[in-house]
Amino acid sequence: MAKQIGYKIMVFMSKRMLACDEASFLISYKHDHKLGFKRWWQLKMHLLSCHLCRKYSHQIEQLNLSVDQYRESCSHDTSTHHLSDNANVKIQHAVSSELNSN
Amino acid sequence: MSAEDNHILEPQHWVERYGDYLYNYAIVRVNDTQKAEDLVQETFLSGLKGKDNFQGKSTERTWLISILKRKIIDTYRKQYSSKESSMAEYEQDISDGDFYRSEDPFKGHWLEGKGPHSHSLLPDGEMEQAELMQVIQTCISLLPPNLASAFVMKMIDETESDEICKELGITPSNLWVMLHRARLKMRQCVENKWLT
To answer: pLDDT by residue (tens digit) across B173-193?
Structure first.
């Protein structure tokens, strides 16, 4: 059993390394999915050797967290943006004339 | 029966009561002032036409938002159907020449300056929350429209992936590649905001 697992690991290790485009894709992909063992391993190996992708991975986590905060702030806050006065008048006019036509 | 149990529609007050609310909802998702204003107006007009369908189970505001949501998805869908059919193939390919080297032996490696610079995406020390939110919003608005709509549906509306694919008429692999590209561009945009 242990031998088999050891063999499998050797096979994975001997697979060609991922390039940065594939690694960064997986970094994004794993936000929404659980990676299979093979991909997880390939990514792990790539990150060990590539400082740019390590930074990328860290930054994407920060990005995802920031976007989460942004989503929260959007759902609570209704005062950031206002209809311009012109738009307000225009829309009010459209609604009123539709109301009166009925 | 109390007012809470059965909501009624008062269209004469819609614009003053919900105009800004709907506009905020729309602008975050379409990032275009004119388009967002049009969507608000269309929502009210559709609401008027369909007011007999209102059953009073939800509030006026919830009901109007549900109409607006539908209209936003229709806008996204139009963006997709107006693109050339080659887009689907393009979106399958993760190797983006804007970010990665395309020549051997360094094929797929980060292009000079296109990968991350600093360890942290965000500047050290104190940062105004409002400032960060502004940066995120600006960077979403700078995404190409097709990437922005996929990114917003996934990350802001937290729509299920299957649902996004169905609404936009794309395959799951299209979607993952688009989300990847959106994150590439978002990351670069946010980092550049602090570097400059």
So the answer is: 889 999 999 999 999 999 988
| Residue in A20, A88, A95 nearest the CB of B48 | A95
A63 closest CB neighbour out of B24, B27, B186? B186
Q: Where do the structural domains in chain A lie, given as residue ranges?
A: 2-101
pTM: 0.82
> Distance of CA B155 to CAs B88, B187, B196, Å?
21, 14, 27
Q: What is the pLDDT of residues A59-99, one digit of tens each?
A: 999 999 999 999 988 876 666 788 888 988 999 999 888 88
How far, in Å, CA of B40 to CA of B22, rounded? 6
Closest C-alpha among B160, B154, B169 to residue B80: B169
User: Is the Cβ–Cβ distance between B47 and B63 less than 8 Å?
Assistant: yes
Q: What is the CATH number of domain B11-81?
A: 1.10.1740.10
